[in-house]
User: Fold this.
Amino acid sequence: MSSSFSRALKLLRKEKGVSQRVAAGRLRISQALLSHYENGAREPGLDFISRACDYYEVSSDYLLGRTMVRESAPGGDGAAQYDASENKDNRLRGSAAALMSKRLLGNSVTLLFDLIDRGGDKKLTAAVMRYISAAYYKVFRMLYSARGMNAETFFSVSEHLYAAAAEHELAAAEMQIRDALSAPSGPETPRISHESLNREYPLLTPSLLNVLHQVGDRIGKTEL
Assistant:
């Protein structure tokens, strides 16, 4: 089982504010066995995973590190959203640049939502998702319309309304992010540094830094 499981198990217990002894009692196992699970020394059975999901109120996919969405989709875990990253047959065909872009952005988004999730603020998670989704929508719509195709045959939003509201959607999402971060009862965001990122996300951090450096370089070269 991946290290994501043991890490998620430990973080969920800490978020709940209970000791290993208390959690072990609720999960009907010994404290020593729970310690082994949280440290990755032992692998649990399906019965324990089911009890842990009920106790921490998360989906099994979240607990196993297969998704960043805590709750089960309607209809249970079986109806959870398809994750292309889990499908080994879903390989990009074409240029190396496309493959590299997919990996850089995919890894960066995974790291981003994991950091946000630590604060336990669902409003912040939703706001960030709204912002990223709006940018994705804009790109996909431009691709669809590039050859003069009528976007209204594919999208439910008319071209006139889209032109007037696209930037507003991004701005509204950004405002929601700022409001969530500045609220008195807002999420406790983790301290971010090169050292902490490399320590906690050794495989994902290089992708994030690559994306940040690329954008920073472009901004730095912009003539005002």
About this structure: Residues 96-220 form one domain. Residues 73-83, 86-92 have pLDDT under 50 and may be disordered. DSSP finds ten helices and no strands in the chain.
